[in-house]
Specification:
This protein is of the alpha/beta class and 359 residues long. It has two domains: 218 residues, 3-Layer(aba) Sandwich (D-Maltodextrin-Binding Protein, domain 2), CATH 3.40.190.10; 133 residues, Periplasmic binding protein-like II (D-Maltodextrin-Binding Protein, domain 2, 3-Layer(aba) Sandwich). Helix content is 30%, strand content 19%. The longest helix is centred in the N-terminal third of the chain and has 15 residues. It is globular.
C-alpha cells in the first residue's frame, strides 16, 4: 500500500527535520525513498504499514507546519517501529502533503488521494451542502469533521508604498490572490463582491505566498492575500520591506457574516506582526476533516492522537498558532457533522471536551 505512493513522496514531509524534496534534487529523493523502503521492509513488512496523508497548503502558510506536527503525533514512535504506549497509531505513518488549500483538500479527500485535510469551516460547509464552489458535486458531501483547530484570519498584505488603505484601494493593483482551489481565493471573491468589486478589477496573479516574496520585494507585485493563522511566515519575512495589513471594516464584515455564517468579524491584534496595529478583518475556524467512509475505529484513534499530551506539546512548541489548539475549542465553529469515530472519542471524555457542542 505504501510503495504505490512513493511517486508522490516529493510532496510529503515524513518527520520533523526532513526538508520537502525538490524535483531537481534526485539524490536526496533516492536516499529518502531508500530509508523509507528499508524501514518498511523489516520484520513488520511493507504490506502491514499504511500511509495517512494530510492535505495542508503552501509551505509559508500555517496549514503546512501545523499539519506536519499533527502528522508526527499520529506517527508517534512508529518511525522506528518501536511502539511506545500512548504515542502514535500502530502500523500507520502519517505525512503532511502540500496542496492548493481548502478546496483542493476537500477534492483530494473525495478522490481518495489523501486521507485527511485541513479545511476552512466555510469551505467544509459548502462541500457538505454541495453549494457555492461545489454546486452540483454531490461526491464532496461526504466530508466529516474530526476537530476544530484554530481561527484563521483573512490577511490582505500590501507594500506600504502602494498606499492601500481599504479593500477598494486594491483596484488596479498587482496582487497575488492564491491558487485556484484555495479557500483564500474563494473568500477573496466574497470580500470583493461585498465591496462592489471582482477579481478583474485587480491585476491578479494566482500564486501561493512562497512564490511571491521576491516579486513583492522588487515591486513587481504590490501585495498578496491569504486566509491563515497568525503569525504567518510569509508576512514576517516581508516586515523589513515595509508592509501594511489592509482592514476589512466591521460593517462590511457583518454584511459578509449575514450571507456566509461561518465567516465572522475578527481582528489581527497589534503586536502579532511588529509595527502593525490592530487590524479588523474576517475569520473562520480551521477544521481537520476526513471522508465519512473512513473506518470508525481508525478515526477514533486519529482523534485520540491529535489530542494526546504528546501532540499538544509538540504543537505548542512547534508553532505560535499551535498554542491555540486546545481541547477547550475542539468543537468550536464546526460547520459539518463530526465523523462517528471522532464523536465517540469526545463522548468518552465529556469533562475534557464541551459535550454540549457535539453535532
Amino acid at each position: 500500500m505504501i510503495l504505490k505512493n512513493l511517486h508522490n513522496f516529493k510532496r510529503y514531509n515524513f518527520i520533523e527535520g526532513y526538508t520537502p524534496i525538490l524535483k531537481t534534487n534526485k539524490l536526496i529523493l533516492l536516499i529518502v525513498i531508500f530509508i523509507l523502503v528499508l524501514i518498511l521492509t523489516t520484520s513488520s513488512g511493507a504490506d502491514n504499514m499504511s500511509l495517512f496523508r494530510i492535505g495542508t497548503g503552501g509551505q509559508t502558510g500555517v496549514y503546512y507546519p501545523v499539519g506536519k506536527i499533527i502528522a508526527q503525533g499520529i506517527t508517534g514512535s512508529n518511525i522506528s517501529l518501536e511502539k511506545t504506549e500512548g504515542t502514535g497509531i500502530q502500523k500507520y505513518i502519517s505525512v503532511a502533503q502540500n496542496s492548493g488549500g481548502s478546496i483542493d483538500n476537500v477534492q483530494g479527500i473525495t478522490a481518495g488521494e489523501i486521507e485527511a485535510g485541513l479545511v476552512q469551516a466555510d469551505v467544509a460547509a459548502w462541500a457538505f451542502h454541495a453549494e457555492h464552489v461545489f454546486k452540483g458535486n454531490d461526491k464532496v458531501r461526504g466530508v466529516r469533521a474530526i476537530a476544530s483547530l484554530y481561527p484563521e484570519k483573512f490577511q490582505i498584505v500590501t507594500r506600504r508604498d502602494a498606499k492601500v488603505q481599504s479593500v477598494n484601494d486594491l483596484r488596479g493593483k498587482h496582487i497575488s490572490i492564491d491558487e485556484i482551489g484555495s479557500g483564500t481565493l474563494a473568500v477573496l471573491r466574497i470580500v470583493l463582491e461585498t465591496h462592489g468589486l471582482n477579481e478583474k478589477d485587480l491585476k491578479p496573479v494566482y500564486l501561493k505566498p512562497v512564490f511571491t516574496q521576491d516579486k513583492i520585494v522588487s515591486g513587481e507585485l504590490q501585495g498578496f492575500v491569504m486566509m491563515a493563522g497568525v503569525p504567518m511566515e510569509a508576512v514576517t519575512q516581508l516586515l523589513s520591506t515595509g508592509i501594511s495589513l489592509v482592514p476589512i471594516a466591521p460593517n462590511m464584515a457583518s454584511l459578509i457574516e449575514a450571507k456566509y455564517p461561518y465567516l465572522v468579524p475578527g481582528k489581527i491584534s497589534a503586536g502579532i506582526y511588529p509595527g502593525i496595529p490592530d487590524t479588523p478583518t474576517i475569520q473562520v475556524h480551521a477544521l481537520m476533516v476526513v471522508n465519512k467512509t473512513m473506518d470508525e475505529e481508525l478515526v477514533y484513534k486519529i482523534t485520540a492522537a491529535l489530542w494526546s499530551e504528546q501532540t499538544l506539546s509538540m504543537l505548542k512548541a512547534g508553532h505560535l498558532q499551535g498554542k491555540s489548539i486546545t481541547p477547550d475549542t475542539a468543537l468550536a465553529g464546526i460547520s459539518i457533522p463530526l465523523h462517528p469515530g471522532a464523536k465517540k472519542y469526545y463522548q468518552k471524555y465529556p469533562k475534557r471536551f464541551n459535550a454540549s457542542q457535539l453535532k
